[in-house]
Amino acid sequence: MSIADHTDQLHSQAEIAALAGVSRATITQWRRAPGFPPPQRGGESDLFHRAGVLAWLDERPVPGRLLQGDPEGTTFGARARAALAGKPQTVSDAPETVEPDTRSDPRDADRVRELMGQLCERVRGAGSRVDYVNLLASLHFLRRFKGAHWNDVVSMSRTGEGSDGAAALLQHIAGGLDEQLRRRGMRPAMRQSLVRIEPRSYNDLRHVVHLVGELGHRAFDLMLDEYELLAGLDSGEFFTPRAVADLMVRIAGENTVSEAPLSVYDPYARGGELLAAATTWSAEQGVAPQRMEICGITHGRDTAPLATMNLTLHGARPRVLVSSDRSPWNTATAFSGKRFDLVLSNPPFNMSDSTGEPRNEGNWPYGPPPLGNDNLAYVQHVLSALEEGGTAAVIMPNKAGNSANKAEKGIRRAVVERGAMKAVVALPDRLFSHTSVPVSVWFLVHPSQACDDILFLDARQVGIPNRGKRTLRDEDVQAVVDAYRYSGGNRDGMGQSLLVPTTVVDRQTVQERDWSLSPMDHIDTHEPRRGAAEAAHAEVLHELEQRKREVREADLAAGVALERLEHEEGQDGPVEWERVVLSSLCGARTTTGGIQAGPSYSLLKKHMATVGGVPLVYPQNLREGRIEKLADDRRVAERAARSLDRFRLRPGDIVCVRTGAMGPPALVRDVGADWLMSTNVIRLRVEERHRDRVHPGYLAAYLGRPESVAWVRDRASATGAPSISAAALGNQPVLLPPYREQQRVVAVLDALDAQAVAHSRLAEAVAATRTTVVERRMFSDLDQAARPETGRRS
User: Fold this and answer.
1) Which of 159, 173, 381, 667 could bridge to 700 as Cys pair (CB 3.0-4.6 Å)?
2) What is the pTM assigned to this prediction?
3) Does residue 622 contact residue 655 with C-beta atoms inside 8 Å?
């Protein structure tokens, strides 16, 4: 292995002794000497980074009595390097690389879904779901190298049996993965995770090995998604969405002096997603990942192995160091003092409005940041790590761009005045797991490339809602990159992108706006523009015509339904009505039916999530007989929701108010399906054996009658705060016509509901048209006023 290689293996004391040509006892003595590198704990033994050990040994000449044919003056470091150059298999064993493959197999999602279904529960046993994902990641990693170890795994999976065979196979998988990690300078970590797994049967474990063997090369990304979901990572550990990473790398790439960076650094590497995106982008520019120096510091000991595996599977030879100190500017590492072509980071946010004084310690060329807030400390660390001609992209909370703190304002001023700020892109909120903090990406350059102007982009409107979060699609990323490319050369003010408004601002303007680096302080998205007004008017006219057609169709369908009901009335003879109570239809609380109150507040409180997860249905979600999404829908973390399945809603369920202002219930349709009940609602679910006796749509309509709602209010008002129990609600009387008659009624009600929705949407379209008419006419008047008079006679 070349000493210039970017990897930094870990070695045991025995291996260091073999390299230096001394006894293990000598290594024990050396460890007590000043400056000897600290160990990384690896299972039962301590491991040491090769680079640090070699540097320490370089300072120690070999005594004459220990020379073994070495020239006089030889250091132990030189002897160790000579041993490495000879590549003895016991110590060098250079880590192999894989060719990156950016292709995705569309079947991978289904395979991973199968792996994370019942197989997960049957195989993990006493282990956690996170342990199980570690097993999948380890298998996938070993399989990508297709070496002897993977062949042994496949062979053992086919021939083994029983609990002893499962334990032996898991030990073999963990041993192979830990050895791969050690060769890449990462502390072995899988044995302690995989030893907790206890499969119910060997066949289940065999099937897992088989399914992983069929996964495509990009399946590791899906496993990282599962890990983040199940591990419940906090704000300091959660991963950066791949689309955000791609956006950062592609725009930063526009600023690089060279065609592609040869060295990349992330001082807060999380799961390695930013470094992986840089590796992929550079490969697309023609730079082989093996040529790149990929360096990162990660702070999650559990996620660090995943970061190394992730980068290795992208074809890189990464150096990922684990540090418990979240202040890389205060920590001496192998990267201290190095300079990089590209620096990327998503550091932990400090959202407090620090009023503290500037810190005294440290070297801060742009000004000392305030005590208790590291946002701009990270910005300065990133700038200090840039090579001349280098560029950086850092995710910052929007508050960092316009905070009133004197120290932070001074740092922003210094960054702008020295020309290090290239651009700022405001992103949508709810992009990240477990936080809805709105953020921006700051694009920085080495001061040698000083920028006189700053480009601001407002991309807060891109992306689509996705399970409580906001997701950027490929076309969204492309829209932002295109806006950057276009506006970067535009010095005439606002850019023309309708989706991503932009503007170029000079230093004087930034100063006038109190050194704000917030795009919202420079881009007036509410200021009308002719292009936007014309496009908006054309769009709403199209929408208006579509809504008119929908209303005509809904009016016709409702009329036909009413006529049919009138025509069919009495054809089947007199209708015989049946008087029952709710509890006879819904019965006891079972998996197939029942009257189920929502979970207790104490049970939900500890599992609440700000973004992501499963939505909760509250009384305010019950509107017009349906469940409606609200802007502030509260949620339960996905990992906890799986243990609350008995409170999950299905299509056909009826949700009633349990506590609070009593109103009509709502029927669960598409919206609301798979959501969870909140504490303040009750679910009615018709028992399976009564499905041909009562139609859920009819029952929901009957319970929504003013008389039925009044019945509930009378019982609820008997308590201090309006509230009704499941038992009391079960006594509510219901009149049932024959099922065929219920179907007829429901068909008409559905048609009338569709008619009401169509008219409501038409009213919204008319209001939107009215607004765009005003804006479009205003621009016409402004143009007329600004047009010079021509041909006027004196």
Assistant:
1) 667
2) 0.66
3) yes
**Predicted local distance difference test score (pLDDT) of residue 314:** 87
Statement: residue 592 has pLDDT above 60: no
Per-residue pLDDT at 794: 33
Tokens 């920590």 appear where? 331
Please report how the helices 739-786 and 530-568 are oriented relative to each other, as an axis angle in degrees rounded to 10: 160
Residue 581 forms beta bridges with which residues?
Answer: 733
Phi-psi region of 573 (alpha: psi -120 to 50; beta: other; left: phi over 0): left
Rounded Cα gap, residues 457 and 440, in angstroms: 9
How far, in Å, CA of 61 to CA of 516, rounded? Answer: 56
Could you give the CA distance from residue 404 to residue 412 in angstroms, rounded to a whole number?
Answer: 11
Q: What is the pLDDT of residues 4-57, one digit of tens each?
A: 344 567 888 888 888 888 888 888 889 888 888 888 765 557 788 888 888 889
The amino acid at 189: A
- Give the Cα separation of 510 and 312 in Å (integer): 42
Contacts of residue 216, Cβ cutoff 8 Å, sequence gap at least 6 = 103, 104, 105, 107, 108
**DSSP letter string over 758-793?**
HHHHHHHHHHHHHHHHHHHHHHHHHHHHHSPP-S--
- Is the pLDDT assigned to residue 355 strictly greater than 60? no
Q: Which of 281-290, 300-309, 320-329, 775-784 has the lowest mean pLDDT?
A: 775-784
733 has which bridge partners? 581
Phi and psi dihedrals of 344, rounded to 5? -130, 145
Q: Please state, in angstroms and rounded to a whole number, the distance separating the CA atoms of residues 397 and 437.
A: 7
Q: Are the CB atoms for 429 and 470 separated by under 8 Å?
A: yes
In angstroms, rounded to a whole number, what is the distance separating the alpha carbons of residues 327 and 361?
12
What are the DSSP E strand ranges found in 427-501?
439-445, 453-458, 464-466, 469-471
The DSSP code for 358 is B
Looking at residue 660, the DSSP 8-state letter turns out to be: S
The DSSP line for 681-746 is EEEEE--GGGTTT--HHHHHHHHTSHHHHHHHHHHHTTSSS-B--HHHHTT-EEEE--HHHHHHHH
For residue 281, give Cα distances in angstroms to 260, 276, 309, 457.
8, 9, 18, 22
Contact 263, 341 (CB under 8 A): yes
- Cα–Cα distance, 150 to 139 (Å, whole number): 8
Are the beta carbons of 419 and 372 closer than 8 angstroms?
A: no
- 589: closest CA among 734, 739, 732, 725? 725
- Interval 412-435: pLDDT, tens: 999 999 999 999 999 988 888 666
Whether the Cβ atoms of residue 536 and residue 544 lie closer than 8 Å to each other: no
CA distance linking residue 282 with residue 102, whole number of Å: 13
Helix axes 474-488, 242-255, angle to 10 degrees: 20
Distance CA 683, CA 655 (A): 5
Q: Give the Cα separation of 568 and 563 in Å (integer).
A: 9
